[in-house]
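Known limitations

Structure tokens in this collection are predictions and should be treated as such. Users comparing against experimental data should check residue numbering before alignment. To illustrate the layout, the record for TraG P-loop domain-containing protein is reproduced below. The input appears on top and the generated tokens appear beneath it.
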Amino acid sequence: GSLVIFDRFSLENANSVVFAKSGSGKSYFVKLEALRLLVFGAEVMIIDPEEEYRTLCEAVGGNYIDFSANSTHKINPFDLSGVAVEGENELGQKLIGLITLLKLMLGGLTASEEAILDRALIETYRIKGITTDPDTQSGIEPPVMEDLYKVLMGASEPEAKGMAERLERFIKGSMTGIFDSQSNINLDSKMTVFSTKHLEEALRPIAFYLILDFVWTRIRRDLKKRILIVEEAWYLMQNEDSARFIYGIAKRARKYYLGLTTISQDVDDFLSSEYGKAIVTNSSIQILLKQHPAGIDKVAETFYLS
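Generated tokens:
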């Protein structure tokens, strides 16, 4: 037969979902597609919770980032894209993302705490000279988590002090250095893999969100054909805010020439979320491999299978 060349970027969107139980070949399938995408000039970024993609990344001369407390690689959640888009408030969008991240880090927020935190974040950026004026949002070093900690400590409200105390372990305690430094990672390599294997289980949803936000911020600076692969995406479905965020990426990815691939073996967790279902409907490609008996009914219902 003839060779068939299929370009997922020719579809309505370049998103895909892959559902399969462990050992059914999903990682092999995704790795094979990643290699083929590289051949056709796409950049590939992967969130890898189990170090499955290290050998592949090294084989193609990619950038392998071990995201952990002892790593030299750092991501600053306060980074801005520096790209002014008509009709979008860059700082406002970043504040929403930071509040979501801080909810994950602090174990939730009350309505009062969220309002105080919003004001504190605005002040943290203002001290660095960054405001809602787009001209102030590029060329200036952004704040880091310690700057927010100082603003909260200096606030008059008791709730602000309480949030500062909960944030302290990420600034001075056992989590020091993971979330409190300027970014030093570039995405210039044809393949970039972010490994979260050496993080505590409790920190993985936070790290997933932080990496996703970093990638989303950076890709908007320089549009080119890119694929973002998120292994074990069910981690993000465990929290409504992080689920909403990855759905937002799936919905807006096409505008930035990005294809999002979400992979999960925990089908029930993924599809039990309304945002998980919405990601499926916003993905032009759905790959179903061997399923666990416990999840097959949910798969059949979602994909209208007999």
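For this record: The radius of gyration is 20 Å. The first strand starts at residue 16 and ends at 19. Please report discrepancies through the issue tracker.
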